[in-house]
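dumping this here before i forget
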Amino acid sequence: MSRPGATAALLTAALLLSACAPSVDPIERLGMKAADRVRPHGPAGPQSYRRWGLSAPLSPPPHPPHPPSRPLALRAALPPVVDRVATADRVVFLTYDDGAEKDPRFVDMVRELRLPVSLFLTDSVVGPGYGHFARLQSVGASVQNHTLDHPAMPGLPYAGQRAEICGQQEKLKSRFGIRPRLFRPPYGTYDTTTLRAAADCGVTVVVLWRAAMTPDGITYRGRDKQLRPGDIILVGPDEAMGPALRERTARLLRRVQASGLTVGRLEDYL
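structure:
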């Protein structure tokens, strides 16, 4: 074949391949570019904490109990509801709800800081963005259940609550290959029917929070207005145009460090 003929054939083949390639959602494409930079198993740079606005590295968490003690879960027919973990370890736990924010650089932050975070995902909020959370899972984040459609659960009939919880269990199983043990009800509200439905869907612990990171700082449930060992913290979604997720997380991490605490993996304690 002559050189012009060979060039034309190569161009035709390239066009056919590009036409057959699956389309990619713009959010997914943005996340893929970030994922190309992420090396989930590679070492973090010794000064990477400075990149994320911290003045010192995060202290490594202590070794958690193996296996974690679950006396309530073992004794009760219904899963226990917790907003903190009873532990003397100087750790707190970072949790994120819904899945609306898909900041590609947050993947880098979790990887470089080796930050154990728990993601409670709602299917209708995540939408086509499950690939972003798969990348977070690949760098150490855990994925947990926050219902299919984020309804207020109290007062809904058992069948509706079970459909919301079990339906998301199946979605997460198909997307990530796991059936979560932890469940957070939307808005942090629940009734006995919620606990029954959660148990029937394989949930072992219902997780609330004792402290929440908001645009105005940290708010607390109860009278104690300090971060304490074992606190479960909700890094709240940004309801308006405000700091990016990674910036809100860095602000919280500075508070955690100032309190003489570090971040543990919630699933290791429940």
